[in-house]
Amino acid sequence: MGGRLARVFRSFNVESRARREISKEKPTPAPRHPTSRLDAQAGHPEIQKEIYRKDDRLLTLLKDVYVESRDPPVRVKDGGGENLPCKQEEKRLTKLGHLGDLDVKKVPKGKISIVEALTLLNNHKLHPQIWTAEKIAAEYSLELKEVKSLLEFFIPFAVQEFPKDTKKAI
User: Fold this and answer.
1) Distance between the two ends of the chain, CA-based, in angstroms?
2) Number of domains observed in the structure of the chain
3) pLDDT one-digit tens code per residue, 76-86
4) At 169, is the pLDDT very low, low, confident or very high (cuts 50, 70, 90)?
5) Model-level pTM greater than 0.85?
């Protein structure tokens, strides 16, 4: 509702406001300072000479400068393994779907891929006596509590086709 109201105020008298803005005289830009122009330097050859002149005093000071650099010694940080996982995650091979190369090949234990989730939900919907929560938990290495909540809260879509004679009645 607020979007409609805002749109009404935005589009109110748009054409006359646009004409008023277009017909305004354009502001004149501020004048440029004469030293900011590059062509001002080109007119003064003494500036060019000063730029390209070598200063002997500065060159001798530069020759006296000696820089020696060394890499700091490498230190091993204590507790550097905090970011590393303490143990390798166990992975299991997935039950591959129909997509072949696009399917995920390995999944950590306790997790399932989308293809597997849709498959197990569909199997449970079609054959709930065979595909119980305990069997699904054992088959896919999942916790029983998570499988029960998955089966309770997620339901796959069912495609229904109506016969032609009932389409007219609908």
Assistant:
1) 33
2) 1
3) 666 555 565 55
4) low
5) no
